Amino acid sequence: MCGIVAYIGNKQAYPIIINGLRRLEYRGYDSAGVALHNREDGNMHVYKRKGKVQELVDFVKKKPIESTIGIGHTRWATHGKPDNINAHPHLSGSGRLAIIHNGIIENYDSIKKALIGEGHSFTSQTDTEVLIHLIEAIQERDNLNLEEAVRVALSQVVGAYAIVIMDKENPNQLIAARKASPLVIGIGDGEFFIASDATPIVEYTQKVVYLNDEEIAVVNRDGDLTLKTIANELKTPFVQQLEMNIEELEKGDYEYFMLKEIFEQPTSITSAMAGRINAGEGWIKVGGLMSTYDKIAAAKRFIIAACGTSWHAGLIGEYLFEELARIPVEVEYASEMRYRNPIIGTDDVIIALSQSGETADTMAALEMAKKKGATLYGIVNSVGSSIARITDAGSYIHAGPEIGVASTKAFTGQVTVLALMAINLGYERGRIPRSYYLQLISELERIPEKVQTILEKNDQIKFIAGEIKDISNALYLGRGYNFPVALEGALKLKEISYIHAEGYPAAEMKHGPIALIDENMPVIIIANNKSAHEKIVSNIQEVKARKGQVIAIVTEGDTVISEIADYVIEIPETDEPLSPLLSVIPLQLLSYHIALMRGCNVDQPRNLAKSVTVE
Ligand code: M6R
Asked: What is the CATH classification number for the domain harbouring 185?
């Protein structure tokens, strides 16, 4: 949440910052701003605008932007409404220091009151402005240089932050720090880039340093990078090579990233399996699993912790691990788990699922479980992210950058990795016979081509979207492995089209939601389960008897459901444990088209941000 970009070097900073902010806009789009230092007039020029980065660009046209140092921010509002005043950067009391910030300073109110008592006044309602006033106050009071003052101030604040600070009187230096909010430094040739993730950096350099919690970096125009902890301990920067290419960050011929990412799934699912499966030779090997095999195979229980779409993938993980590997599983909302006092011990394995690898609640749940001695396993998309680093072992899903706020290819990547792990463990633990093991392997390898055939039904799905686009509510039903898919379908619809939607286990319908059904309530039923086919047919009959409109996702050739449903979308047959990888695809497309037809911004739905780094 909130995107940070900063630059120091020989190039013009403004275009680099704006380009980077556009890449980070998925993290928040309530307002955007930049601070630039003009060498000729010696002034710091701060431009801020409510709304998207384009509003800022339009505002800045014809204004002085000459600068080889600068900081920029795209905001997801926490403290203070989204407007020009609360937009970042914020200035210190004297106007000498400018700061951009991602995170929340929880004790800002008491600091603010103390500063007001010392004569400070504030223009915004933000916690960020309080922090930069505090830094300057400490600098002046204790006669410290900026780096020292930042260190002292950060030791006094409670909360989360990724910050970059620029000093008008020293335009040869930027100071950055992080705690529980991501920050990465790109090292170029005599230049540095600082950003919330690597996407603004990758076109300039592949060399990066990910800051750890409570680290402060000082970058100088002469190419010097110094890393220290808040406790003033010198650290050696760990320089890593980025695994990302620029094409992955572009929309290409697609109108929206979400559509591009939906259509990338045959490739992204293949990437999630690459090097981990071989149907010809009949094996699955999941590297991360191997490295912690003894602990994982001996686990009394898996606890899957995640949020949102990743939590839905986790629910599918529960079905997979319990059925195939016979390991007991609990699936936790990370936001709840972190504040309970769950019974977790050294025999537990916590599996964290996260696309961004930065979700604050998931990180906090992991930190708590780590203290209790559990083994931590991460299934993450963003390479080098906080969750990837805190876990003892893990498996990247290798989906490539997911930029649309609505998660699509990350979900199928997560389910693919969970399936690989469950099949692997099930076989190694002697819970599934070799014949079934080989069948699942060969079926898993065929999933990408089956996803492709579903994508080819895009026009049919678009037609159905057109028929139901004006609805106010929708009910999604599924059984077994497809119950979490019903939840995911409902989430996709609500987050991008703002239509109220609920996901339910199909059999639960008669315990309440059936009261909602009338001719205005479309019911989307995921009906491709082999094992419960007759029961699903009964559920559909129950909906039809109450004049509900049924859109059914069925297995190719299912004439029974085709005759009773209003619309059917046929998908290829597969083994039930793998069926979510297929059944979710039409639901993603359906939501996409409905949202587009209702004039919604599919990639940047209102109030949301891609990476939820605050509570
Ligand atoms: O990056 P994470 O997977 O940890 O994010 C979790 C949720 O915030 C995320 O899945 C969210 O629900 C998406 N907007 C769903 O499309």
From this structure: 3.60.20.10
Choosing from 29, 197, 258, 309 the residue with most ligand 1 atoms within 8 A of its CB, the one to mutate for a pocket test is 309
Q: How distant, in Å, are the alpha carbons of 113, 118, 124, 130, 389 from that of 121?
A: 10, 9, 10, 10, 40
Both 263 and 163 in one domain: the answer is no
* 266 and 414 part of one domain: yes
Domain-terminating residue out of 213, 247, 281: 247
Rounded to two decimals, the pTM is: 0.84
Containing structural domain, residue 609: 457-615
Q: Is residue 252 part of a domain?
A: no
Q: Closest Cα to atom 4, ligand 1: which residue?
A: 354
Asked whether residue 95 falls in the same domain as residue 130, the answer is: yes
Q: Which atom of ligand 1 is nearest to the CA of 405?
A: 14
- φ, ψ for residue 250, nearest 5 deg: -105, 155
The residues carrying an active-site annotation are: 2, 610
d(CA 25, CA 602): 13
DSSP state, residue 89: P
Q: What is the CATH number of the domain that holds 584?
A: 3.40.50.10490
Distance of alpha carbon 491 from alpha carbon 315, whole angstroms: 14
Pocket lining: 406 vs ligand 1, CB cutoff 6 Å = yes
Block mean pLDDT (10 aa), the chain, length 615: 93 97 89 95 95 95 95 89 93 97 93 97 96 97 97 95 96 95 94 95 94 95 94 95 82 93 97 95 92 87 97 98 96 93 93 95 95 96 90 95 94 98 95 97 97 98 97 94 98 96 90 87 91 87 90 95 95 97 98 97 84 72
- Residue owning the nearest CA to atom 7 of ligand 1: 308
Task: Supply the residue whose CA is at minimum distance from atom 16 of ligand 1.
Answer: 406
